UniProtKB/TrEMBL annotation, chains A, B:
SUPFAM superfamilies referenced in this protein's UniProt entry, alphabetically: Winged helix' DNA-binding domain
Residue ranges of domain HTH arsR-type in the record: 1-89
Transmembrane segments: none
Matches recorded under Pfam families: HTH_5
Organism: Desulfosporosinus hippei DSM 8344
Keywords (A to Z) from UniProt: DNA-binding, Transcription, Transcription regulation
GO molecular function: DNA binding; DNA-binding transcription factor activity
Protein's UniProt name: DNA-binding transcriptional regulator, ArsR family
DNA sequence: TATACATTTAGATATATTTCTAAATGTATA
DNA sequence: TATACATTTAGAAATATATCTAAATGTATA
């Protein structure tokens, strides 16, 4: 889990949509998958890429596994973008 | 050129290094390529991906082609990240 | 404990990406 | 105008990614 994995994770449209969904609160893998027309296995793969990138965390509650947005990584990416933009050229 | 292409472009380490180089000012394709151990053709490919993502622009000056960082796209990405992070949870 | 439900993992296939070498293009200059 | 230099484009090979189906895992409950 690092910068590389975080950006790779964000570079896919489906995964960005998952992140947008999680903005409104934690969701189970099943509920997330229900928003897409691909198989649950495929969505599960995307969730694991997001997890590798540190963009989400998961926790089990009984039969269900809940996914939650992790914003600390997002701040790291923003810091890089701000640095890239350059303080002098705003 | 859109959000998807911009993030795809940023998701590669070599391309992020190119962006970091261009932070310090415009550079020719040759000077950029000199910073890497891959062929000029490969670096040229990366530059074209960055261009597709709107992250750089190029201009010819005689024999040379100069590349320049384009920061407006970066702001668009930052806006998404800020939105993702959520105003309420800072 | 057998069954059902929620989810992930394994293995396969198709598509995309990275990289290379060789050839092509555009510009300057002897 | 022939040649050299800077760079890109074309085409091929290797690797990575997205997706599927089928099987495995983990948990709850009849």
């Amino acid at each position: 889990m690092g910068f590389q994995e975080s950006l790779k994770a964000m570079s896919d449209k489906t995964r960005r949509e998952i992140l947008n969904l999680l903005k409104n609160g934690d969701m189970t893998a099943g509920d997330i998958a229900a928003h897409f027309s691909m198989t649950q296995a495929t969505v599960s793969h995307h969730l694991s890429v997001l997890k590798d990138g540190g963009l989400v965390t998961d926790r089990r509650e009984g039969k269900y596994i809940f996914y939650e947005l992790n914003t600390s990584v997002i701040e790291e990416i923003m810091a890089w973008l701000i640095e890239l933009k350059g303080v002098d050229k705003q």
